[in-house]
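Input sequence (512 aa), recorded before submission:
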Amino acid sequence: MRLGCVVPWFWVFRVLVLKSPASAAGAWRRATFSQHVELDENGKYHLRWKHDNTTITFEVEVETRGYVGLGLSPTGSMAQSDMVIGGVANGRPYLKDYNTLNFDGKLNEDHRQDYRLEYGMENNTHTIIAFSRDLNSCDHKDKIITDNTVRVIWAYHPEDVKQDRPQYHLTNRGRKSLYLLNPVVDAFIPNDVLVFNIRHYNVSIPTKDTTYWCQIFKLPNLTKKHHVIRVEPIIQKGHEHLVHHILLYQCHSILNDSALDVGHECYNSNMPDDFFNCESIILAWAIGGKGFSYPADVGLSLGTSADPVYVMMEMHYDNSNYREGYVDSSGLKLLYTPVLRKYDAGVIETGVWVSLYHMIPPDMSSYISQGHCSMECLQEALSQEKASGIHVFAVLLHSHLAGRALRIRHFRNDVEQPLLAHDDEFDFNFQEFRYLKEERVLLPGDSLVTECQYNTTFRSNMTWGGLSTKDEMCLSYLLYYPRIDLSRCESLPEIAPQLKFIGVKEIYHPVM
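Predicted structure, token format:
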């Protein structure tokens, strides 16, 4: 284990080279990686990785016989990035550490080579390079890898690096935000798992920036208890940028089948009355997220008298370009099983209640809003149902375009505990449930503060709390067990200090 920032004077390389797949038989073993993602939509660039407390190891598998590049960027662009480029040339793998600390984005060879080549191979179609580095290399030109969102940039070229520097990659490039240090949860799916899809069909998206579309669905008719063990988004291909978030609400038992098959805009003056009977959130998904698996001893309960029969799916469409002709059929896939788990899962939405009372001034490089789940709220909810507390195991942090950093603060007996969750490099286009490294117990009398930092230097008018992505939110969704009767625990800013802050000295009531 490496302690502190002691810089070794040499690196030991472990190099394996293969010229063809046939020569790999019985002679070469690739490392096993716990996490994997396709970085491009055509499946040509695969990234795998694993980590421990001090080191991260990557493997890239790319459909090219030239060089491959991977970078860690503060913004998703080339400028100010920490990069590594490698390949296999003349049967020998190569790897070099670069950076683009100059603002023109040109590559500079790093004076310290902190990436370590593990192995490399090339066949007739693909190049595979594996390499590792310390999470904190103690080199100010290398990005420290933390549990914040990391914007990964990638590129490849049909030719290997020449003597001077890599050739320009043209359109073979992209970016993707990831949680590189997200804990790995066992996502084993048994063969006998049951599947139920909840999805809209052929919804015509209006030519406006924000549309919330709701519809009520009936869950499977079950004669005994089941558990949902995994939830996956069903996003229509090409609409990944359009579907911003999906919430699933449990509806009141007074509903019947007459409420089904009626899709309508939510929060509209003429929306169906039945929508008002669906208020408790049971599932949440947001843009950029993948599927979510519950821990091995936890599941979302279906089939009992306390469980939903009808649910309402709310889908937020973000048509910021006002494009015409979108017809969407996205939704959620529920994977469930009669093999029961020990605990029933629940969701708590906490933060700032969405309203115009949530005000964010313009031209502020850093402005913080706070939403409170008060001591009194958790005292009442937990002491009546679960005095021993509930266990939070995953969190989704949610804000809009002005959001820059989000965190959940946890207090017990007026003493602040370690942060429940945080992201100091929040990416609006990547909002995914993140598993906690260690489950956190919430006890009666605890309190939570969801804190959101905004940047409005690019805005000349006030930003208000609201539904549009041009408005703002400050929310967090806590996944926990065992389930209690608490769906929301939020607060509203006091209006008087807000008005004073923006210069309002007196309010005159109109004379009728």
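Checked by second reader. The radius of gyration is 25 Å.
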